[in-house]
Every structure is written in C-alpha cells, then in structure tokens.
Amino acid sequence: YGCIPGNKTEYILSANLTEEKFQENPIINVDAIIWVNRPFELWVVQVILAVISLTEALLLAYLGYK
Questions:
Q1: What pLDDT, in 10s, does the model give residues 5-56?
Q2: Domain map of the chain by residue range?
Q3: Predicted pLDDT of residue 41
Q4: Nearest to 5 by CA among 31, 37, 33, 30
Q5: pTM for the complete prediction?
Q6: How would you label 3-36 residue by residue, b for 16+ Cβ within 10 Å and e otherwise?
Q7: Is the CA virtual torsion 31, 37, 38, 44 positive or negative?
Q8: CA distance 59 to 56
Q9: CA–CA distance, 30 with 18 (Å, rounded to integer)
Q10: Which pick of 10, 52, 58, 65 has the fewest CB atoms within 10 Å?
C-alpha cells in the first residue's frame, strides 16, 4: 500500500502475550491504524463531518456552561 516497512518483531511478539501480560505493557501498531488506503473524496467528507461534529460538541458545551 505504499507504507514504509519497519521492524514488526515487537508487534508479533506482543500478539502471543496473555491478556494480563498485554495489559501490563500494551504494544499497539499505530502505523497500521493510521495508514489506511482510501479515496481522497472520502477523506474530505470525513474531515468535514468531523469538523461539524466537533463544532456542535463545542457549541453544546458552551451553551450548557452558560
């Protein structure tokens, strides 16, 4: 997909941990979460909806405070 390959041994080893051991030292592959191959138009729509949602939440918080 065009993302840069890196050293993934840490993530592979963490996949074999028990639930308790993973909770003590959680290791999450952020590169895999951030790198998503999607069309530019969909990205624009998601950003617009996120800005609208954030604006609405801030407005409701402000009006609730007042």
A1: 677 777 777 778 888 887 887 777 777 777 777 889 999 999 999 999 999 9
A2: 1-35, 37-66
A3: 95
A4: 31
A5: 0.50
A6: eeeeeeeeeeeeeeeeeeeeeeeeeeeeeeeeee
A7: positive
A8: 5
A9: 20
A10: 65
Is residue 3 within 8 A of residue 37, CB to CB? The reply is: no
Cα separation of the two ends of the chain? 48
Confidence (pLDDT) at 66 = 79
pLDDT attached to residue 45: 97
d(CA 52, CA 58): 10
